[in-house]
């Protein structure tokens, strides 16, 4: 069997990349191990243009976010579904100091930060003493539905293999690779945290982070907003259900849910919410973050038949569409990649292999 590209991993990076490659007319074979705790499946899919306690604009937000909106809309059209939803993010200030920081940043740049006109609007739903601000435009992407719908399409086309690939068994040949009787021009690894053991890319400066989240049922909350006070409450497609999280752990003993997180989060919700809630699920996953907080995109500098698309960390929903498209353009039309994302910035490290 001959194809143009083997794509390893059907998380948000592998999904978007394989979709763009097929739109360019390339023959794609997608491998997916289907791990239950994939970070793409456990993520809330929030696209938020600001970050941190100082409300700084996220990297390339003015480019990435409009692109993501158009990409998810187009993919939804292809798959006859809706995956992206506009959501106003309401940020409740935990302290007077936090409120002052927001006001200061709003005066400097009001592109995404806005004052909320009715500071008492959410009194029926939340306890809050220092007011709230508005962050918009923000979005929520239904990643579980998107990934499931796309894999179902690929399965119908006969180009999805639900199995784990062994990177060490990939053989390099002139102008391509061979694996398990398949010949391809390229193999692109979009395997999330498994990349730390990939023989081609394990030397890259990954910095995996563990995140935990709850899924709750709460009948009283409005569902057109994302709410934030330390943690986020994100509406889910099923009525009255919400994703609550997430934690960020750079050091962790295991990738599983912990009672400590659950108790802490439930206490936080009881102090914040005025409505009763019930915990339906408790999830944990490890994100493929990087030391630089920039993705790894592109072809191996010493072995150009082998590529990687990884390292999107907590921002996979916003980063994946743009850089998947850029990577596809690189392969098909030889266009350059964004230097801050191009994996060849680690040429010296990767050349040691």
Order of helices and strands: EHEHEEEHEHEEHEEEEEEEEHEEEHH
The amount of helix comes to 25-40%
- SS strand fraction: 25-35%
Q: How many alpha or pi helices?
A: 8
Question: Termini separation (Å)?
Answer: 29 Å
Which CATH class of the domain at 2-42 and 144-204 and 292-350 applies here?
Alpha Beta
Rg on CA atoms, Å: 21 Å
* Main β-sheet description: 9 strands, mixed
CATH architecture name of the domain at 2-42 and 144-204 and 292-350: 3-Layer(bba) Sandwich
Identify the quaternary structure here: single chain
User: What low-confidence regions span 5 or more consecutive residues with pLDDT below 50?
Assistant: none
The CATH homologous superfamily name of the domain at 2-42 and 144-204 and 292-350 equals FAD/NAD(P)-binding domain
């Amino acid at each position: 069997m001959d194809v143009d590209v083997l794509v390893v991993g059907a998380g948000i990076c592998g999904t978007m990349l394989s979709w763009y490659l097929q739109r360019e007319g390339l023959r794609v074979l997608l491998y997916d191990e289907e791990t239950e705790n994939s970070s793409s499946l456990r993520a809330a899919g929030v696209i938020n243009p600001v970050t941190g306690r100082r409300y700084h604009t996220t990297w390339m937000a003015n480019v990435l976010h409009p692109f993501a909106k158009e990409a998810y809309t187009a993919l939804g059209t292809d798959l006859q579904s809706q995956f992206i939803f506009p959501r106003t993010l309401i940020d409740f200030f935990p302290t007077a100091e936090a409120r002052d920081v927001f006001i200061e940043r709003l005066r400097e740049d009001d592109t995404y930060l806005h004052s909320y006109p009715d500071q008492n609007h959410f009194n029926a739903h939340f306890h809050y003493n220092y007011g709230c601000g508005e962050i918009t435009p923000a979005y929520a992407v239904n990643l579980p539905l998107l990934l499931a719908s796309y894999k179902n399409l690929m399965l119908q086309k006969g180009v999805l293999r639900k199995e784990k690939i062994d990177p060490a068994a990939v053989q390099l040949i002139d102008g391509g690779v061979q694996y398990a009787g398949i010949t391809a021009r390229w193999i692109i690894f979009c395997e999330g945290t498994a990349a730390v053991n990939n023989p081609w890319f394990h030397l890259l400066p990954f910095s995996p982070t563990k995140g935990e989240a709850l899924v709750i049922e709460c009948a009283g909350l409005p569902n057109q907003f994302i709410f934030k006070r330390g943690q986020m409450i994100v509406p889910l497609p099923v009525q009255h259900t919400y994703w609550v999280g997430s934690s960020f752990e750079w050091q962790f003993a295991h990738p599983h849910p912990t009672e400590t997180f659950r108790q802490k989060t439930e206490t936080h919700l009881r102090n914040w919410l005025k409505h009763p809630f019930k915990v339906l699920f408790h999830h944990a996953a490890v994100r493929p973050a990087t030391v630089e907080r920039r993705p790894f995109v592109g072809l191996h500098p010493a072995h150009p038949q082998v590529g990687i698309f990884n390292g999107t960390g907590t921002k996979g929903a916003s980063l994946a569409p743009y850089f998947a498209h850029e990577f596809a353009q690189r392969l098909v039309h030889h266009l350059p990649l964004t230097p801050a994302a191009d994996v060849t910035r680690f040429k010296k490290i990767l050349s040691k292999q």
